[in-house]
Amino acid sequence: MGISNTVMENDVVFVGKKPIMSYVLTVLTHMNSGHDKVVLKARGSTISKAVDISQIVKRKFSKDLKISNVEIGTEELPNEQRNENTGDRKRNVSFIAIEMGR
Questions:
Q1: What is the pLDDT, as a whole number, of residue 4?
Q2: Cα(100)–Cα(77) distance, rounded to whole angstroms?
Q3: Spatial separation of the C-alpha atoms in residues 84 and 72, rounded to whole Å
Q4: How many angstroms separate the CA atoms of 30 and 37, rounded?
Q5: Number of domains composing the chain
Q6: pTM exceeds 0.70, yes or no
Q7: What CA–CA distance (Å, rounded) separates 64 from 8?
Q8: What tens digit of pLDDT does each residue of 25-55 get?
Q9: Which residues face 24 on adjacent strands?
Q10: Beta strand pairing status for 8-9 and 37-43?
Q11: CA–CA dist 47, 1 (Å, integer)
């Protein structure tokens, strides 16, 4: 586990089901620990939460942080059940990666 019990690898914060302010605190703690950047990564229904987190951090807590890059795309993930229509065992899930830095 990473900062404040949020899943984090290197400079990446994986956004999930925790409250938004938990992720805001993680981003702020990470940046105040001397790191130059942090990346919020979210899939599917948590994409809007990642956008909200980036905006709260930028507007209310750390005006010197800027969004330096945004990546969007689709990842192919294993599906627990076979798709009845196509027979596939994979599913496509949208993702967003928001890089913030000074």
A1: 45
A2: 26
A3: 28
A4: 8
A5: 1
A6: yes
A7: 22
A8: 999 999 999 999 999 999 999 999 999 999 9
A9: none
A10: unpaired
A11: 21
